[in-house]
Amino acid sequence: MLKSNKLFVIDTNVFIHNPEAVLSFRDSEIAIPLVVLEELDKLKTYQDQRGKNAREAIRFFNTLIKGGDVRSGVKLENGSVLRVIFGGIGEPPADLPLDRNDNVIILQAAALLQSGRPVFFVSKDINARVKAAVLGLKAVDYEKQKVNAAELYGGIRDLDVVCSSPETFSAAVSNQFSDKLLANEYVYANASDPEQCFLGRWDKKANTLHLVPNERKHCFGIQARNERQWAALDLLLNPDIPCVTLIGRAGTGKTLLAVAAGLHLVVEEKKYDRILVSRPIVPLGKDIGYLPGEKAAKLATWMEPIFDNLEYLISINKRPNMKNVDQIFKERYMEVEAVTYIRGRSLPSQFIVIDEAQNLTPHEIKTIVSRAGANSKVVLTGDPEQIDNMYLDANSNGLSYLVEAFKGEQLFGHITLQKTERSELAELAARLL
After folding, report:
1. Which of 79, 157, 241, 278 has its CA 20 to 30 A from that of 338?
2. Which of helix, strand or coil describes residue 100?
3. DSSP labels for 366-401?
């Protein structure tokens, strides 16, 4: 017998966000409109992440309903009952034509109100939730994998005490923060004298503060311009921290720092075999297959921001084996790949950079990070305030979710970059627009 009389009707986009979303609702009744399965069936042919998630959701449903009757309800391990609903919408309002699947799903959910039970319509689509609320449904977002972006972990703290030496810095950190610091969290002591500015990384396992040397301010021809970039470079260059996230507005240096650190570790220190750079194909809403040419030519359009950073690094380094961007790829220092095609690969000994990661769902982030093989490092960069995926926001995107889920882990480090260093105009635009 169900412990709750709540009834949840789940929209298609929730399963695109998380194919196993039904497991998030415990001890309740879950109703899946037949139209949702029809939409997933159409999406499964897509070669992008939506298609992959649709296929995974269909396979998951098939596993759940084996041996049961989905019309009357199938008992799930989490105490819930899953059933598929169809028809039963009666005479639809003229304002909601049935030629749109969204309206059919909402009307089927509204018809369930006749049972007298509280019916919750769960959707990532804001407009669909508004229409559902108009019909008397309790419309909610899928919040299982949401965080509070306003309180997102920043990865660094400022020390209010002026320190004259590394010893006084360590003592001041101990006095102010003691057990409050998380693994790989940074502390910065600012002073007018650069010689009295200190940066330290907390080693939770050893219960020790590691002073970050000034040499970490420099990497592959670039120099950290503020303490957060300094901390970011220290994280990026540390092979003992295999997962790093960098969040910041446009111009804060996220991608440049990641690419520079990757080139340093691949070309100079040979810690990794190559850099693998990827970005989600989101802004135009189409897969790279719609663009002409071979895969490299298709990806070039989406990877222009990466190439811009490479050209800048080439111009300031002037290395004989790196005269242009083409030579970097010819020498196999770097490879570019669409996020869509990372799934299924095993990626050992690579420095993996996922740019614009705020456009990925938590499920997609899990898929990517789990691809990392032995001796690989994964760096995810992005700005949760600039999201192109219509079903994500600053609280529900995979990058923010990863930061909150991984904070405090010994294998993880994060820095939120705040100051735009690209130009004064870029800083003004990022702050006011």
Report:
1. 241
2. coil
3. HHHHTTB-TT-EEEEEE-TTS---TT--TTTSHHHH
Hey, what are 350's tokens?
A: 């690579």
Sheet holding 7-10, edge to edge: 74-75, 81-85, 29-33, 7-10, 119-122, 138-140
Question: What CATH number corresponds to the domain at position 256?
Answer: 3.40.50.300
Which of 171, 183, 194, 264 lies closest to 222, judged by CA? Answer: 264
pLDDT digits (tens, 9 = 90+) for 165-190: 999 999 999 888 878 999 999 999 98
Residue 269's closest CA among 351, 352, 374, 147?
A: 351
The partner residues of 264 in beta bridges, in order of sequence, read: none
Is it the case that residue 12 has pLDDT exceeding 90? yes
Alpha carbons 45 and 43: distance in angstroms, whole number: 5
One DSSP character per residue, 116-164 reads SS-EEEE-S-HHHHHHHHHTT-EEE---TT---GGG---SEEEE-S--S
**Domain interval for residue 78:** 7-140
Residue 29 pairs in a beta bridge with 7, 81
What is the 8-class DSSP label of residue 218? E
| Position 140, amino acid | V
- Is beta strand 350-354 parallel, antiparallel or unpaired with respect to 243-248? unpaired
Cα 9 to Cα 139: distance, rounded to the nearest angstrom = 10
pTM of the shown model: 0.81
What is the C-alpha end-to-end distance of the chain, expressed in Å? 54
Total structural domains in the chain?
2
Q: Are residues 287 and 403 in the same domain?
A: yes
Residues in a beta bridge with 156: 186
Last residue of a domain, one of 140, 157, 187: 140
pLDDT in tens, 336-377: 887 777 766 778 899 999 999 999 989 889 988 988 888 999
Separation between Cα atoms, residue 128 and residue 105, nearest integer Å: 9
Residue 206 maps to a domain: no
The DSSP output letter for 180 is: G
Report the number of secondary-structure helices (H) and strands (E) in the chain. 14, 18
